[in-house]
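ugh ok fine here u go
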Amino acid sequence: CSSDLVSPSSDLTLEERRLLFLACTKVIGSLRSAWRSVASVEEKELVEQYRVSIEAEISKFCDGILELLDKSLIPSASSSESQVFYLTKKGDYERYSAEIKDGDDFNLASEKAMESYNAAEVVFTNLCMQKLLMSELIKNSQSCLIFHTYISFLVILKGKLNSAGPFFLMF
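structure:
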């Protein structure tokens, strides 16, 4: 298949051409097969290296966000809405971190995510209860205001009734 191996002085016969290219096909076929095997192994190693690199980036990023949430954002959250938001985000980033882990590390990260989600749920439930109570208080306050207005109206009406006579009773 190399020019220095074959240098015919005349045209090859049909049989010689077939034999030549059959031999070349066998050689190149086995070389290509070997190359694919090596390339596949090499590619898998590159993919594994790339996966490990991405996992390291994900882990570093999640750790940074979790540190920011734990040390700064959650402790300084002034409203329940903020606390629920930050605790939910903490659960999200712990879950993202768990996705790239296995074994005990996966279980630990998953448990931390669930703890954060549960904490967010508790704060959210308390928030809902507070809002419900506030809503009832506001309704009661409005009821009290309406009642107070009604009583004030009756007092004014009674004063006018005493001065106007029975005509005001029809109103």
